[in-house]
Amino acid sequence: MNSPKDFTASVGADMRVTQKRVLFVTRRTSPQVKSFDEERVQAFPEALIRALLAIECLFIVLVFLSLFFNAPLEGIANPTNTPNPAKAPWYFLGLQEMLHYFPPVVAGIIIPGLLVTALFVIPYFDINVEAEGFFLRNYQRRLTLSMGISGALSLFLWFFDVYVALVPTLIIAGLMLLAALSSTDSPNRLRRYLASRPISWWIMTWFLFELIVLTTVGTFFRGPGWSWVWPWRS
Asked: Does any domain span residue 109?
């Protein structure tokens, strides 16, 4: 302190006006300010503004696309002339492809119901919340569990001849096995990346892979009577 100062204390009724804070710093101590960054941010305005910007950008892109490309709509529906094949919108073609293999109750109710139920149930379980590599802890147990589930699912798909869904499942199972045999210190970049992926990443990747494959097959590889056709053949 350059020069001594006198501090006086007064008595008042309104503490919001008369309250004072005095800090005494001696020669043996130094002022320290401890601050912690918050892990959460306010939904408004941070998250909401970003969501609004994303929606606006998507809207502008869709408007520009609609100016240059026509919507792939067919003619007026004719009840006396049903097209063959009668395909659902593209976002339902994956489900329609499953109806080709499974009974309607299985493909239309049980499987979608299990997926929706999983979306509600999984968040209530303490499953790899730290988002670390799935095989970095409890290695043997998790490897046995993942390979057992993958094997049972593969046998189920093979029994019903659902090869279009079996191939993505086997690919994801192979990548999981590669991740289990890798480490985050591996010299290979791909193996390091796979070893650091959590269980949520594996489940979502498998789901999106299956959805893309089933939708692609239903869109380009299904012809009259839902038979297999090659896209380059009329």
From this structure: yes
Spatial separation of the C-alpha atoms in residues 172 and 150, rounded to whole Å: 9
For residue 72, say if its preceding peptide bond is cis, omega within 30 degrees of 0. Answer: no
108-156 confidence digits (pLDDT tens): 888 888 888 877 877 676 555 556 788 888 889 989 999 999 999 999 8
Burial 121-144 (b: 16+ CB within 10 A, else e): eeeeeeebeeeebbbbeeeeebbe
Count of the separate structural domains present in the chain = 1
What gap in Å lies between CA 112 and CA 100, rounded to an integer? 15
Residues sharing a CB contact under 8 Å with residue 231, sequence separation 6 or more, in sequence order: 220, 221
Q: The whole model's pTM is what? A: 0.66
Phi, psi at 208, each rounded to 5°: -65, -40
Q: Residue 154: inside a domain, yes or no?
A: yes
Residue 47 lies in a domain: no
Which domain, by its residues, includes 193? 83-226
Q: Which of these, 176, 195, 173, lies nearest to 184 by C-alpha position?
A: 195
Helix axis angle for 163-180 and 139-159, nearest 10°, is: 170
Query: Is residue 215 in some structural domain?
Result: yes
The answer, yes or no, to whether residue 60 has pLDDT greater than 90, is yes
Task: Tell me the one-letter amino acid at 170.
Answer: L
Show the 3-state SS of 200-213: HHHHHHHHHHHHHH
Amino acid occupying residue 62: L
Helix (H, G, I), strand (E, B) or coil at 158: helix
